[in-house]
Every structure is written in C-alpha cells, then in structure tokens.
Design brief:
Blueprint: H1 13-20, E1 26-35, E2 40-48, E3 52-56, E4 66-70, E5 76-85, E6 88-93, H2 99-111, E7 120-130, E8 133-142, E9 146-150, E10 160-165, E11 169-179, E12 182-187, H3 205-208, H4 213-225
Antiparallel strand pairs: 1-2, 1-4, 2-3, 3-6, 4-5, 5-6, 7-8, 7-10, 8-9, 9-12, 10-11, 11-12
Length: 239
C-alpha cells in the first residue's frame, strides 16, 4: 500500500528564512485542542502555514504520531508529528489547507459574539464541597474556565462550591445550570493551560491507556461537525 502523502511542517530555524522568502507562514498565539490515540489536551499554536503548524507543549511527543488539531469546535485538522525540539513540535498536515481562510474563519467566529472556550473530555472522579459537606461527582469535561459534571441530584443552579480535582487541583466554582443529574460549572479562577495539556493525570490509570467512550464519541462528533478545510494542490510547504 502506498504511504499517505504528508505536507511539510515548518521548522523553528527555517521559519525566519521562510518569512524572508515571502512564504505564507503566519504567527499565531492560540489554544488548540489536541486529540491523540491515548490522550487529549490543550496546547498552544505558535505558527501555521498551508502545509503544517508549530505547537508548544510540555507533554512528550513522538515523531510520526498521528494527531488531530481542533482550532475550534468546527475546524479540525489531521496530521503527523514531523519533528520535536525542546517543548515544541511541528505538525505536517495530511492535506494542504488554505491557512489564510482558516484564520479568517476563526476571526469571524470570535467576532459574532459567541465564542465557546475549547474543552477536553474525560472521566474523572472528583469532590465538590458545599457548605463544608463533601459530594462525590464525576467530571466529564474541562476548559480553562469551566467544567461539566455528573452529580447525585444535590447540586443546584446558583450554588457556590469548592471543586477538588485529581492531582490536588482546587478551584472555587459557581453552578451555572443543573438538570437531570448534570451540571455546568464556571470557575472563578481559570485553570492554567499547562494543567490541561494532558488529561491522563486527571483520570484513572486504567482509563488513560485508551480513549474513554466519552472521548471517542467527542472525536467522531467533532469530525462530523467540523467544516472541511479548503484543500489545495499538494506542494512543498515551508520547512
């Protein structure tokens, strides 16, 4: 079987040369949701070209690893890790894109007044303290500013609580809504992005070996919902 073609990911040292040569390498500072075979997390996008992008993360990454980059809930890009260097990695897209159009779509989505922060799906046992009473809950998704939980019916809209996540992470939160045993929390102090670079440390070890059912469902739904990037003729991207 013929190996799938991958575009070239922009490297660190050659980025300056690409800019001098007029290549369409665009500097970006944006959080993206990264979906991997055995993990998910929020990483930072540093630049993007029509053939690939550079990401920063403290999570170990292997060259050749398949990765899906979700720039929003609607825009999803597939690729492979092309290189890794000191907390940075280059992703070569499976299909060349129109980077300028992608960035325009992201800007339009932010300008329309509705911008939902990216969140990662997980299954993590946690505790919620309300009036000094502990309640066991399950956290099913997390963003820097909020959380989705499953509870026993005792969590009501408007409550203030202390959320205790695995790894000793604690945050005060306000219950924005609650119905049918589920609730949405708003965190009064955002989570630092590095805490969400990998969901493995937030859920049981047995579940971290593979995507949970919640994560698999989210991946499939996201790819069905995602607007396909405009494909272009495959040519050598900046390297």
């Amino acid at each position: 079987m013929e190996e799938p073609h991958l575009c070239a990911a922009p490297s660190i040292a050659e980025a300056e040369d690409d800019r001098r040569d007029g290549a369409r390498l665009r500097t970006v500072c944006r959080i993206a949701k990264i979906l991997r075979i055995d993990d998910a997390g929020l990483w930072m996008v540093r630049n993007i070209s029509d053939g690939g992008m550079m990401l920063t993360t403290n999570v170990p990454v292997a060259v050749g690893e398949d990765i899906t980059v979700m720039l929003s809930e609607e825009i999803s890009l597939d690729g492979q890790v092309a290189w890794v260097d000191d907390g940075r990695c280059g992703i070569a897209f499976s299909e060349e894109i129109d980077g300028e159009q992608i960035l325009r779509q992201l800007a339009e989505g932010k300008d329309d007044g509705w911008h939902r922060p990216l969140r990662v799906e997980l299954n993590a046992h946690a505790l919620a303290s309300v009036n000094h009473r502990m309640r066991p809950i399950e956290v099913v998704n997390l963003s820097q500013h909020g959380a989705g939980i499953i509870h026993d019916g005792s969590v009501e809209a408007g409550m203030r609580l202390n959320l205790m996540l695995p790894g000793g992470i604690r945050r005060e939160a306000v219950v924005r809504w609650s119905r049918d045993g589920r609730a949405g929390l708003w965190l009064t102090q955002p989570l630092e992005r590095h805490l969400l670079e990998s969901v493995r440390h937030l859920q049981p070890q047995a579940q971290s070996k593979k995507l949970t059912l919640t994560q698999k469902t989210a991946v499939v739904a996201a790819k069905k919902k995602a607007a396909p990037a405009t494909k272009k003729r495959r040519s050598a991207a900046p390297r």
